[in-house]
Amino acid sequence: MKAHELDEKFDAGEDISAHIDWSKARRPNQEPRRVNVDFPAWVVDGLDREARHLGVTRQSVIKMWIAEKLR
């Protein structure tokens, strides 16, 4: 199938998943990279309170807040 045919199917709302090799799919700039940050105890306590309030992990709170700030 040519790219323009795939585009037409997608634009028409058709299911194109059978034509995609998901094992080779990539999300540019989404590769995780590990960083270490030291916070004072009061910051960690605040993060933990917010995480409990939201029902998510501390790491999720940190990721959400940083992503929001960088937008």
Mean pLDDT: 93
Rg of Cα set: 20 Å
Secondary-structure element string: HHH
* Count of separate DSSP helical elements: 3
Strand content: under 5%
Overall strand count: 0
Give the terminus-to-terminus CA distance.
37 Å
Report the helical percentage: 40-55%
Shape: elongated
The major pleated sheet works out as: none
Low-confidence stretches: none
SS-derived structural category: mainly alpha
What does this protein look like?
The protein is mostly helical and about 70 residues long. The relative contact order is 0.07. The protein has helices at about 5-10, 40-55, 60-70. The protein is built from 3 helices and no strands. The chain is elongated. The longest helix is centred in the last third of the chain and has 14 residues, at about 40-55. The mean pLDDT is about 95. Helices cover about 50% and strands about 0% of the residues. Helix 2 (about 40-55) crosses helix 3.
